[in-house]
Amino acid sequence: MDFWISFFDNKIQKEKKQNILMIKNFINNHQNIDIYLNINENINLYDLEKLCDSVGWVRRPIKKVEIAINNSFLIMCLFYYNNNTKNLIGFARVTSDNAFNATIWDVVIHPKFQGLGLGKILMNQIVKQLRNYDISTITLFADPQVIKFYKHLGFMIDPDGVKGMFWYPL
Questions:
Q1: Does the UniProt entry include the keyword Transferase (predicted)?
Q2: I need a surface site. Which of 1, 4, 92, 111 has the fewest CB within 10 A?
Q3: Which CATH number fits the domain that encloses residue 41?
Q4: Which residues contact 109 (CB under 8 A, 6 or more apart)?
C-alpha cells in the first residue's frame, strides 16, 4: 500500500510541476495555433467571465466565482497565445470530498473552438487527474443539449434511477 501511495504522490507532484501541456495544434485562418492545458494555475476572473459570456451563461458575482474557484479541488484551463497574450478558450473545475466523490462544474469551451475535440480532451484530462487521486465516483450536471456529448465520454444517467434533488431559498 505504501508503494502505491508514494507512486501516486510522486506522479501528482510531477504533474503539478509540469502543469502546462501543449495538447493540440491546428491552423485557423492560415495561422498556426498551439492550444495549451494548464492544471490548478491562477485564472484571470475577468477572462473567465468573458469566456462564460461567449456561451451565453448568466453572469455570476465575480467575488462568488473567486470563492468557488478557491474552494475547488481541481481547475483546468485551455488557452493559446496571440501576440504574447494568453487567451482563455476552455475551463472546468471540480469539487471533491478528496476520497470517494468528485463533481465536475462549469465546463465551457469558447464557441469559436467548439467541434475541435477540445471539450473531450479537457474532460478526459479531468477524469485522468481524478483517477490519479483514486476518486472513482465522478458526477456532473448536464443540460439536455450536452447529454449526448457526455455519454460519448462514458458518463451515464444514473443507472439506479437516482434523481438529483435541489433546495432553493424561496
A1: yes
A2: 1
A3: 3.40.630.30
A4: 55, 78, 89, 90, 118, 119, 122
Q: Is residue 53 part of a domain?
A: yes
Q: Look at residue 95 and tell me if it is in a domain.
A: yes
User: What is the rounded distance in angstroms from the CA atom of residue 129 to the CA atom of residue 146?
Assistant: 22
Told to judge if 150 belongs to the known catalytic residues of this protein, a careful annotator would answer: yes
Q: 46, 80, 150, 168: which is the annotated catalytic residue?
A: 150
- Number of domains present in the structure of the chain: 1
pLDDT one-digit tens code per residue, 30-71: 678 889 999 998 899 999 999 999 999 999 999 999 999 999
Task: Classify 27 as helix, strand or coil.
Answer: strand
Q: Could you tell me if residue 86 is inside a domain?
A: yes
pTM for the whole structure: 0.82
